[in-house]
From TrEMBL:
Composition-biased stretches (Basic and acidic residues): 1-10
Protein name in the entry: Polysaccharide transport membrane protein
Keyword Cell membrane: yes
Regions crossing the membrane: 37-55, 67-84, 105-125, 137-159, 180-199, 205-225, 257-273, 307-326, 347-367, 379-404, 416-435, 441-459, 480-505, 511-531
């Protein structure tokens, strides 16, 4: 593991905060991306084993997971991000001992909130089923994960406070690996060996979250024990000039944590609005079949969402990295560094998010078939492509809300999110009534658009965001992304046409071949263009020179 601190003896931050952000983002992005991909790939064998119950099972899985996600965020209570922010704050002052005490008191809080929320989810499950009794056993199985994950997430926040992202990223991947292994194993045994109930199989698939949480927690414990001597040394050499009573530490944690609940649950809150309004609003359009409504819900809220969250995780990883870095700059009252980091964050977001979203939209047809088969393929493809564009707003909110937390504007960020939520609620019925399954996605886009505009406007007024510099580079990213998107789409059409002469293109194998070729060529084109024009250097720094040499690009 790398050096545990980026501070010198005087408590000054190392000057290359941009490089620090990129390095931290790389770790968090890698962990998040691999975890998301693993969390999406499992759906292929899982769906095959569920057979004709696939869409129904996936809809039930989504209903349970949306409710679970909200309870989990409430249980975590924003404590990990608050701990990361406050630990970074005290580390910047060379008060490592205070940060360590924060972690210990946060551990107690996380254990208590996990216990309370797990009990509420388990015993209150019948109140949250939305009229579908099959959701109850799913919520019961998920309650066990709520009991464990808060403590695991808190420990990740502690490492992040030291800008050490590797433990978080690796534990995240191990957690997902164990979860997916249990999901697939239990689904195969119940559906194929025992020929049991698909509801039972879904319940065991959701219980896998608990299995994964145990594996992730053990990974973090190993990292902690490995680095305990380093932690002890930092604490021993602290200034120890600040004495913070335990009561004040709890107050600091809670004051920082509570707004994180709302902001961290932002996307989940919008998904819950969809879950509890979509079915009734769609019945008003004349569609009354429960099976059809579940299929439509699965398309936009579960299937497409699972894939777009892979690319949203890019910006989420960036958001996690931004908070402690901004907190340090804010503690030093270094407005120039804050403005510089805001600009870096926006550029890094655009650099990875825009091409990812446009690329997914371009390959939506074969990508949808790989994961979800040919059922309702045309409508499902359109929903996935549209969702890919929506993901830009979701990702941007992940970054902007994290920035607001980093500069201690939690309450203001919550107010802006509340305005966006009101917009979402106001537009939900007319959007669903006139646009059907696309309605919730449109309402979500507009809701987050309003919240993002409000946040960016305030940040610009308060710290000054270099929009001219950002817009010039973002225009370059957008131009190269659109070119890449067009090439990817043409390759999908061309390769599909060529393959159609000797194999079924709309099969998982045929679609995989199409995706690999389209992503490989179009993806390389984007990389070539940003390296050849030196655009990548302005965003990611001099390390791109080495990559350019490796790829033989002048």
């Amino acid at each position: 593991m790398t050096e545990m601190s980026n501070h010198n003896e005087d408590g000054n931050t190392a000057p290359d905060s941009k490089d620090q952000m990129v390095t931290g983002s790389a770790w968090m992005t890698a962990g998040s991306i691999f975890s998301r991909i693993l969390g999406a790939v499992y759906i292929i064998p899982w769906g095959i084993w569920f057979g004709s119950y696939f869409f129904q099972g996936n809809a039930l899985y989504g209903k349970g997971y949306n409710i679970y996600s909200f309870f989990l965020i409430a249980a975590i209570a924003g404590i990990p991000s608050a701990i990361a922010k406050q630990v970074a704050h005290y580390n910047a002052m060379n008060e490592y001992g205070v940060g360590f005490r924060l972690y210990k008191h946060g551990f107690i809080l996380a254990a208590l909130t996990g216990l309370v929320c797990a009990a509420l989810l388990y015993f209150g499950a019948p109140m949250f089923d939305g009229g579908d009794a099959r959701v109850v056993p799913v919520l019961h199985s998920l309650a066990w994960a709520v009991l464990i994950i808060p403590v695991m997430s808190l420990s990740r926040g502690f490492f992040q406070g030291y800008q050490q992202m590797a433990p978080s990223a690796i534990s995240q991947f191990v957690e997902q690996l164990a979860r997916v292994a249990y999901m697939l194993g239990s689904a195969f045994i119940i559906m194929r060996v025992l020929h049991g109930s698909w509801v039972t199989a879904v319940s065991q698939s959701t219980f896998a979250a608990c299995v994964g949480a145990i594996a992730g927690t053990l990974t973090l414990a190993w990292y902690y024990l490995k680095n305990r001597p380093t932690f002890n040394s930092l604490v021993a050499n602290s200034k120890n000039e600040i004495v913070v009573p335990a009561k004040q530490l709890y107050q600091e944690i809670l004051q920082q944590a509570l707004p994180f609940i709302v902001l961290g649950a932002g996307i989940t809150i919008f998904q819950l609005i969809d879950q509890y309004t979509f079915f009734n609003f769609m019945r008003g359009t004349g569609i009354t079949s429960t099976v059809m409504l579940n299929n439509l819900f699965a398309m936009f809220s579960v299937n497409a969402n699972k894939l777009i969250m892979i690319i949203v995780s890019l910006s989420s990883a960036l958001a996690i990295t931004v908070v402690p870095l901004l907190s340090e700059a804010y503690t030093r009252n270094d407005r120039e560094d804050i403005s510089h980091q805001l600009t870096n964050a926006m550029l890094l977001f655009a650099f990875v998010m825009i091409p990812s979203a446009l690329g997914m939209a371009a390959i939506a047809h074969p990508l949808n078939i790989i994961f979800y088969g040919t059922s309702h393929k045309d409508l499902a493809t359109a929903v996935l492509a549209f969702s890919a564009f929506v993901s830009i707003m979701l990702g941007l909110f992940s970054v902007t809300s994290a920035i607001m937390q980093g500069v201690s504007q939690n309450k203001r960020a919550v107010r802006y999110f509340a305005v966006g939520t009101i917009v979402k609620l106001a537009l939900q019925w007319p959007c669903i009534h006139y646009m059907g399954v696309f309605g919730p996605l449109v309402a979500t886009t507009l809701g987050f658009l309003v919240a993002n505009i409000l946040i960016l406007n305030w940040l610009n007024k308060s710290f000054g965001v270099d929009f001219p510099a950002i817009s010039k580079k973002v225009n370059g990213v957008l131009a190269f992304s659109l070119l890449m998107c067009g090439v990817a789409y043409l390759l999908v059409q061309l390769v599909s046409h060529l393959l159609a002469t000797f194999m079924v293109v709309d099969s998982r194998v045929g679609s995989l071949i199409v995706v690999v070729i389209a992503v490989g060529i179009a993806g390389y084109l984007y990389v070539y263009l940003v390296l050849r024009t030196r655009l990548a250097d302005t965003v990611l720094g001099d390390r791109m020179r080495r990559l350019r040499t490796m790829l033989h690009i002048k």
